[in-house]
């Protein structure tokens, strides 16, 4: 921690003429005394530190010692900072924050404000809209296992129920379509699997190290399977359902018919998930074609209604 902070201070001082000790203390969330001890250690390591008091004073490095910082353009730095900002929104811990401080310090002072405006034009937030969950704990456990390259054991819920997995080698974390996944290798079955992070629990890091393996694309086989199953269905929706429908398609799939009605050409997969989406629209949606989808939807809605009818009879 101290070494990382000292490195960040050196990089900062290489780019700024002077920095006040108080500003460094606030930036790194430590006491002013800690900053002065760091400065003494940096000076003892052979880096010529200068200090001055009064207006415009502060801590600096001799100009003759400074390096050319033209390695990255401002656009390069914005791209890197945006990437780190996405990582910071996912992972707790201070390593990303430290990296952000180091990289920000490389940008010349006169360009810093403009760069900050550009960086803040994009924001990524992976947190849930409703309620909190245990995802952060699982992410941090997998992250530690990845860094140390240790196997993990965990419980996993799937359609068949709960399974217990041991000796799993987490090789990569993947984010796709609003969900985090862990791509892992299972030595017992000698194959790769993709685990949805929200279905993982009781994650424990084992003491067994593993080696990195060449990874196949995490979704290529699944994507090909889904594409083969996908076909277009025609829907009629009310204007009140348009906003929600845009979560599943774009305006290019939608035609306004007048009288607050829209026709939708929706990519669809004939499974529980697909019908669950259609049923969630209630009476704001009607399936026009194909006929077998419309009939299946009617049958499923009748079964759902029957659940409440049977319950009323028992009461």
TrEMBL record:
GO molecular function annotations of the record: DNA-binding transcription factor activity
Record-annotated HTH deoR-type domain positions: 2-57
InterPro entries: CBASS_pafABC_assoc_protein, DeoR_HTH, HTH_11, PafC-like, WCX_dom, WH-like_DNA-bd_sf, WH_DNA-bd_sf, WYL_dom
A Pfam entry, by short name: HTH_11
PROSITE patterns (alphabetical): HTH_DEOR_2, WYL
Keywords, sorted A to Z: Transcription, Transcription regulation
This protein's name: HTH deoR-type domain-containing protein
Native source organism of the sequence: Paenibacillus amylolyticus
């Amino acid at each position: 921690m101290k070494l990382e902070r000292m490195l960040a201070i050196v990089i900062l001082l290489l780019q700024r003429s002077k920095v006040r000790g108080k500003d460094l203390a606030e930036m790194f969330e430590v006491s002013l005394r800690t900053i002065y001890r760091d400065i003494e250690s940096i000076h003892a390591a052979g880096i010529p530190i200068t200090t001055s008091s009064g207006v415009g004073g502060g801590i600096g490095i001799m100009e003759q010692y400074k390096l050319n910082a033209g390695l990255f353009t401002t656009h390069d730095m914005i791209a890197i900072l945006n990437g780190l900002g996405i990582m910071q929104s996912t992972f707790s811990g201070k390593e990303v924050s430290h990296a952000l401080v180091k990289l920000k310090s490389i940008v010349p002072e006169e360009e810093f404000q403009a760069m900050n405006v550009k960086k803040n034009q994009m924001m990524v937030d992976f947190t849930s809209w409703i309620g909190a969950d245990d995802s952060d704990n699982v992410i941090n456990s997998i992250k530690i296992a990845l860094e140390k390259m240790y196997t993990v054991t965990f419980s996993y819920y799937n359609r068949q129920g709960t399974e217990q997995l041991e000796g799993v080698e987490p090789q990569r974390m993947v984010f796709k379509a609003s969900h985090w996944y862990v791509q892992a290798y299972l030595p017992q079955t000698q194959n790769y699997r993709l685990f949805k992070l929200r279905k993982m629990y009781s994650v424990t890091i084992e003491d067994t190290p593993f080696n990195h393996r060449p990874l196949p694309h995490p979704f290529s086989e699944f994507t090909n399977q889904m594409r083969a199953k996908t076909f277009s269905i025609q829907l009629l929706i009310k204007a009140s359902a348009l906003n929600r429908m845009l979560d599943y398609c774009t305006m290019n799939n939608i035609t306004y018919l007048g009288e607050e009605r829209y026709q939708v050409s929706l990519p669809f997969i004939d499974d529980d998930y697909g019908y669950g989406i259609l049923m969630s629209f209630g009476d704001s949606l009607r399936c026009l074609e194909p006929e077998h989808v419309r009939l299946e939807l009617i049958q499923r809605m009748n079964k759902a209604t029957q659940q409440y009818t049977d319950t009323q009879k028992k009461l």
